[in-house]
Amino acid sequence: MGLATLCRSETLLLCIFILIGLWVVAFRRGRYWRKFATVLVVLCIYLLTISPWVIRNFFVVGAPVLSTNGGITFYQGNSSEATGGYIAWEVPDDMPNNEVARSDYFFQRGIEYLRANLTTYPLLLGKKVTALWLPNDNLILDLSDILLIPLSIIGLALALWDRSKWHFCAIVASPIAAITMSALIFHGNGRYRTPMYGSLIMFAAVLLAVIVQRMIDWQVSRHRNLTQNRLFSPKMTQNQAKSGRFDCNSNEVLLE
């Protein structure tokens, strides 16, 4: 997780949701302190992995940050020009030269816009989610989404219905929750949901597993009924009755 955060700072949200999922698993199974120690170890390893880069930024750019692009990205998704997705726009002339100050500047402008447009903000959130799930100009992924997304939604509902699978949902749904949250904070784009596909496939597999299990149960029940019908049929021959432990004279099942 630490290496992923060093590559893309947005995965910080993913790590947070995974840690929350691990805590949910610990709470579900009742081993609080043992699982808490596991979560704590994971968190420490994660912090140790990203700490060299954070320390480097502290001395180079003047702040212990992972990235200085957060403010610009935030303003792209929260401004008067925002469409919910990625937009190309010209850099203002009054922008600070320092990277950290520039990021803070755009964060402040985005927050100011949100404060002045609270009534239309829910509409903007809807546009961001829509942009996240729009086709991403990849024919193979777009065609697979037509089948995969509905199957995964049904599989997620089935997993949530079964309380024994809540810990499974807490971990597997972490990438979906993190990427959706990132899109709501910044902006959405079809290519951003690529890390979700592992989770979508697993939830679709839940549905397929339920279907296969129902088919197996139906076949077993059907075979059992056919076997009982043969055993108790009055038209059975003597050999069939003996092989089925059936007494033709008394019409009773012979017990071993």
Major sheet: 2 strands, antiparallel
- The share of residues in helices is 55-70%
Query: How do the SSEs run, as a string of H and E?
Result: HHHHHHHHHHHEE
List the uncertain runs: 245-256
Counted beta strands? 2
Compute the average pLDDT. 80
Rg from Cα = 29 Å
End-to-end gap: 62 Å
Alpha-beta classification = mainly alpha
Shape: globular
Tell me the fraction of residues in β-strands, as a range.
under 5%
Summarize, please:
By secondary structure, the protein is an all-alpha fold. The chain is built from 11 helices and 2 strands; from the N terminus they run αααααααααααββ. The protein has a domain of 67 residues.
Describe the 3D structure:
The protein is an all-alpha fold and 256 residues long. The chain has a domain at 1-67. The chain has helices at residues 2-7, 11-29, 32-60, 70-77, 99-116, 121-133, 139-161, 166-172, 174-185, 197-231, 238-243; strands at residues 246-247, 252-253. It has a two-stranded antiparallel sheet with strand order 1-2. A hairpin with a 4-residue loop joins strand 1 and strand 2 (252-253). Helix 2 packs antiparallel against helix 8 (166-172) and helix 2 crosses helix 9 (174-185). It is globular. The chain starts with a helix and ends with a strand. 19% of the residues are buried. Mean pLDDT is 80; it is low at 245-256.
